[in-house]
Amino acid sequence: MRTLCSSTLIGEFFVIGFAGLVAMKDDSLAMSTVWWVCGVAMVLSVLLCGMVTRPGGVQLGWALQIGLVASGFFVPTMFFLGAVFAGLWWASVHYGRRIDEVKAGWAATQAAGASAGPDAA
Q1: How distant, in Å, are the alpha carbons of 40, 44, 50, 109 from that of 24?
Q2: Distance CA 44, CA 112 (A)
Q3: Side-chain-side CA neighbours of residue 12 (13 Å)
Q4: Got the DSSP string for 58-98?
Q5: N or C: which end of the chain has fewer CB within 10 A?
Q6: Is residue 109's pLDDT more than 70?
Q7: Is there a contact between 63 and 12 (Cβ–Cβ < 8 Å)?
Q8: DSSP per residue over 11-22, as a string?
Q9: What is the Cβ-side half-sphere exposure of residue 109, based on CA atoms within 13 angstroms?
Q10: Contact partners, residue 93, CB within 8 Å, separation at least 6
Q11: Is the pLDDT at 100 greater than 60, yes or no?
Q12: pTM to 2 decimals?
């Protein structure tokens, strides 16, 4: 799960940065506010790469996804990109957990076969 989720979060890191560049062109938004919000979101996306398997990591990832979609109120394209990344996040969590379960089952099978000895076959 960690690899899939981390890949999604790194992709979001770049999308958040590019959204900041687009938001910077809006005269109604203060440039310092745009970069503080984008900077915090970008740092959070990188930190979440290491926290995704810890308790609360997936929930913080969902909070980031909600923030990404909500940023569409300032950069309308982010409604679409936020929804795409929310879907990628769901897929990363869902399929990542399934992959982890299959790997654990395979490792248990290998360990059982190794402990039975060569006469088990």
Answers
A1: 16, 20, 29, 55
A2: 41
A3: 37
A4: HHHHHHHHHHHHHGGGTSTHHHHHHHHHHHHHHHHHHHHHH
A5: C
A6: yes
A7: no
A8: HHHHHHHHHHHH
A9: 6
A10: 1, 4, 5, 58, 61
A11: yes
A12: 0.83
Say which DSSP state 55 is in: T
Q: Is the pLDDT of residue 120 over 80?
A: no
Tokens of 34: 């745009």
Q: Letter for the amino acid at 86?
A: A
Tokens of residue 11, six digits: 């992709």
pLDDT class for 69, splitting at 50, 70, 90?
A: very high
List pLDDT tens digits, range 14-61. Answer: 999 999 999 999 999 999 999 999 999 999 999 999 999 899 999 999
